Amino acid sequence: MGKICVIGGGGYVGLTTGACFADLGNDVVCVDIDEAKIAGLKRGKLPIYEPGLQELVERNAKMERLSFTTSYDQGLKNAEFAFIAVDTPSGSEGEADLKYVRIAAQTIAERMSGSVIIVNKSTVPIGTGDWVAEIVQEHIKPDLVFSVVSNPEFLREGSAINDFLHPDRIVLGSTDRQAAEKVAQLYLSLRAPIIVTDLRTAEMIKYASNAYLANRISFINEIASICEQLGADIKEVTVGMGYDKRIGHAYLDAGVGWGGSCFPKDVKALAHMAAIHGRNPQLLRAVIEINRDQRRRVVQSLRELLGTLHTKTVAVLGLAFKPNTDDMREAPAVEIIHLLKNEGASIKTFDPVAMERAGEILTGVTYCEDAYEAAEGSDALVIVTDWNEFKHLDMARIRESMAQAVLIDGRNIYEPKLMQDLGFVYRGIGRGYDTSGPGQSAEVLNAGQLEESEIAGDEAP
Ligand code: UDX
Asked: Which pTM does this prediction carry?
């Protein structure tokens, strides 16, 4: 097994990658310039919340396969691979800011003591691999050699470890086939298809994949908006669409839109790259605009149902950009709460995990102990994040405790008819079917069931 150094190893991607590679039997050193993060990690305190990661880090640190340092020298000593997994924040035009990649590349070049394969995991603009190679070439000691491989990550927060250990595919891009094959060896035991291609193509696979997924969600949100006007139910529409093998069921949940550390940044960066290279990325721009509208429409619905928002109290359930994470980056809740506050509403909120992090960016809101406390005395309840625990609330109790029973279900986790029967004024996203009817969810009948019901019909008097 090779020795791996992960630069940015205290970050989300770096730490997950490092811990998983260690678990596969490699000797891994995570390097990070953030001293507080490294000091915490040495004591077993993780800077992020990710299910299963704490155990994985503890186990591998104990087995001495995983260690943490702020020293490049220590990390790169005898390293065969140097993974770059640093932040690439968005600049003002949506372009990826590569200052941390530059520092990582230059420092690797200056500190490496033997030949190293530099593997880039960060999502970087197309052409960055070539640029990294130039930087390294400029700063490397004369007798050393290196290769650059692009190996984009496709990890989702909340299921990162599972995604790492059970990937749909591994993408490797390089001008050096042998180097790509060496990196492929690290992943061999995962038994996933490995795509070996050139650097730029590998970099584009990452952008195109994320942009496509964001596009699917914005597409379905646009269809949801049309459903609302035309009396169709988006939840059933997507069930019907998803059975088409060419479409599939994943990433078709309508809601308040996509957020997080990847989709917003990557779609904007891809649009920016297209624009500066003379293309007109109309679809990508629409994907972004539709996503913004999803947040605005929540506020618009509340305005329609409550009249003015001034002096009204709105309970917001869920702050994280999605369940099972405390990540607040580009979380729909942030914009929704800002818009509501601008219109004079008071906010009570609850999130099972993200309140501490939310507190750093959202002030002037009341953080509650649980969903019930948030709902009590409120004029409206808005579900923003589809945490499992919000799917099993005692909604009758909530209804009783509210000043007005307006429910905006931003993730379609409740059945409209049931909520209306409880006395809520209910609005989901794209749930426009006739609510006077039975309100069943889409049913998939198989041939056996149909035959039985025909026989039953024959016997009827
Ligand atoms: C994403 C990619 O999935 C991953 O491959 C990449 O490496 C990083 O970006 P992540 O940001 O963790 O992962 O979130 P993901 O689970 O993909 O969800 C993104 C956003 O889309 C969330 O805000 C989620 O609520 C939203 N979403 C997802 C929908 O609104 N509808 C859906 O059907 C699916």
From this structure: 0.92
Q: How far is the CA of 112 from the centre of ligand 1 (A)?
A: 36
- The set of protein residues with a Cβ atom below 6 angstroms from ligand 1 is 153-157, 210, 213, 217, 251-253, 255, 257-263, 321-322
Query: Is residue 179 in a domain?
Result: yes
For the segment 255-278, the average pLDDT, to the nearest whole number, is: 95
Same domain, 139 and 10: yes
Q: Cα(158)–Cα(163) distance, rounded to whole angstroms?
A: 9
Q: In angstroms, rounded to a whole number, what is the distance separating the alpha carbons of residues 184 and 14?
A: 18
* Burial call 76-90: b when 16+ CB within 10 Å, e when fewer: beebbbbbbbbbbeb
Q: Residues 340-354: pLDDT tens digits?
A: 999 999 999 999 999
What is d(CA 264, CA 197) in angstroms, rounded to the nearest whole number?
26
Q: Whose CA is nearest to atom 13 of ligand 1?
A: 156
DSSP tag of 383:
E
Which residue CA neighbors atom 3 of ligand 1 most closely? 156
Q: How many domains does the chain have?
A: 2
Q: Pick the catalytic residue from 5, 20, 30, 262.
A: 262
Q: Which range is least confidently modeled, 107-116, 287-296, 434-443, 444-453?
A: 434-443
pLDDT in tens, 41-63: 999 999 988 999 999 999 999 99
Domain residues for 190?
3-197
Q: What is the CATH number of the domain that holds 96?
A: 3.40.50.720
Which atom of ligand 1 sits closest to the CA of residue 259?
23
Residue 204 lies in a domain: no
Comparing CA positions, the residue from 169, 127, 177, 132 lying closest to residue 152 is 169
Same domain as 415, residue 266: yes
